[in-house]
Design goal:
By secondary structure, this protein is an alpha/beta fold. The chain has helices spanning about 5-10, 45-50, 60-65, 80-90, 110-120, 135-140, 165-170, 185-190, 190-200, 200-205, 220-225, 270-275, 295-305, 310-320, 345-360, 380-390, 415-425; strands spanning about 15, 30, 55, 75, 100-105, 125, 150-155, 175-180, 215, 235-240, 250-255, 260-265, 280-290, 330, 335-340, 365-370, 395-400, 410-415, 435. A 9-stranded mixed beta sheet has the order 6-7-5-8-9-10-11-12-13, sandwiched between helices. A 6-stranded mixed beta sheet has the order 14-15-19-16-17-18. Strand 11 and strand 12 form a beta hairpin. Helix 5 (about 110-120) crosses helix 14 (about 310-320) and helix 15 (about 345-360) runs parallel beside helix 16. The termini are far apart.
């Protein structure tokens, strides 16, 4: 079957599952493969559970059952993952709506959430749930598109060259933004230059559109270097640099102790053209971290472009409360916790430490997890992190993970989160502001209930 035929089959059975444990009656099972599983082995089981069809890419399994009871329900393709993405793209093409693609080293999810909140003041918005931002998650998000949606916000993650190219070719965004580029997944990308090239595959795709629009973080030199005077892209820039206020949506931090308060205004050039007065809009957020101003300005830029009223933009930003272990403040009976325990790389770790230094508190404690996927740069980057912590002079520092084992420092080290929880149970730290920063694999998100 070609993709058009497969999509017609999907229209007759508009539910796709990739999990043989979840087979709604009349759905279509696609046999995806992973490092530790092969969906082909469960194709027939999915039919027995109620699926109308099962799409496989294992010829041996197909041939084994092609003459059996379920022969008419089995469909053989060259590559199930590619087929999954192709059907999702065909579904996306049924909707003539703006699709905003978001990628970047740090801040993708927070920016996506903020943009969805702002756009939600005017539109019915489809947006990525959780961290469904890879070559399985993006198609799953696209399959949620329906005729009620007026705009879509699609988050895209990457850890290897070509990842963003694959995702944009599936989601086909009409506009997009790169939050920033930093030193993350260096083992997969091969180099920092590989990070930049891969993230900018979003720009490359948008250049193929006559109306390709990007929302540009004008403070990130690595991104502005990708744009030239002859570029075909339409640019909406935002910045915190006072020197760029004439043509950028601009903003500045008013306070961050611990919650971020900012003010912003439209480009002075546009204000002058309208003959209006210069007006700052103030926003008190529930976000912790001055670094979030870039994410907020991105959401403002998107909101203005799509005609959301200024007051509603501010209200959406003020009402957004993080609940995903990113820039999240939690107050317990014993401590104030700043929880940023989903992702960690050298860029985000430096931002978190620098921000924690700015917060006024009598006693500060940092529990920080190791950074992964740094390859040959791992020892050097962990040493830089230790040097930052030494200079910061927090009252207590606990380091979690084997990557810290051979780094000389005066700080207390733990093998894993289990050891940390045992120490907390024994010592019961109280009266601290505690920064909990690490990647999801460190499982530091398990700590707040103990603190």
């Amino acid at each position: 079957m070609d993709i058009k035929s497969l999509y017609r089959l999907y229209q007759e059975h508009p539910c796709i599952t990739t999990d043989s444990r979840d087979c709604p009656e009349g759905s279509i099972f696609i046999a995806l493969k992973g490092a530790s599983f092969d969906g082909n082995k469960f194709a027939v089981q999915s039919l027995e559970k109620g699926c109308a069809y099962a799409i496989v890419d294992d010829k041996d399994i197909y041939n084994k059952y092609v003459s059996a009871t379920h022969s008419s329900q089995l469909i053989l393709v060259d590559d199930c993952l590619q087929t999954f993405k192709d059907i999702a793209r065909e579904h996306r093409r049924q909707f003539d709506i703006p699709v905003i693609g978001i990628t970047g080293t740090n801040g993708k999810t927070t920016t996506k959430e903020l943009i969805a909140a702002v756009l939600g003041e005017k539109f019915n918005v489809l947006y990525t749930q959780g961290n469904f931002n890879n070559d399985v998650g993006v198609p799953k998000t696209l399959f949620r598109l329906n005729k009620e949606h007026e705009i879509a916000v699609i988050e895209m993650g990457a850890s290897h060259p070509g990842d963003i190219k694959t995702l944009v070719e599936t989601a086909e965004p009409t506009c997009g933004l790169i939050t920033n580029v930093g030193r993350a997944h260096l083992q997969g990308f091969g180099s920092f230059e590989g990070v930049i090239k891969t993230k900018c595959e979003l720009y490359d795709f948008l250049r193929t559109r006559e109306d390709g629009l990007i929302f540009l973080n004008a403070d990130n030199q690595y991104l502005t270097d990708q744009i030239d005077d002859d570029d075909t892209l339409w640019i909406t820039p935002y910045s915190t640099d006072p020197k760029k206020q004439y043509n950028c949506i601009s903003g500045e931090v008013i306070a961050c102790d611990p919650f971020l308060k900012i003010r912003w205004r439209e480009p002075l050039m546009e204000i002058e053209e309208r003959g209006g007065s210069i007006k700052w809009h103030k926003v008190q957020t529930h976000l912790v971290g001055a670094y979030n101003i870039d994410n907020i300005l991105a959401a403002i830029a998107v909101g203005i472009n799509f005609g959301v009223e200024r007051k509603k933009i501010c209200a959406a930003l003020e009402n957004y409360v993080p609940s995903n272990n990113r820039s999240q403040m939690t107050v317990t009976d014993h401590n104030h916790l700043i929880v940023d325990a989903y992702n960690a790389n050298p860029t985000s770790m430096k931002a978190a430490i620098d921000n924690f230094k700015m917060i006024t508190a009598d006693r500060k404690m940092a529990i920080l997890g190791q950074m992964g996927e740094l390859g040959d740069d791992s020892v050097r980057e962990h040493q830089k992190m230790v040097d930052m912590l030494t200079e910061a002079d927090f009252d207590v520092v606990w380091l979690v993970g084997d990557n810290f084992r051979d780094i000389p420092c005066p700080f207390r080290k733990f093998k894993d989160v289990t050891e940390v929880k045992a120490a907390i149970a024994k010592e019961q730290p109280q009266g601290y502001y505690i920064l909990i920063k690490g990647s999801n694999t460190n499982r530091l998100f398990e700590l707040p209930e103990s603190l």
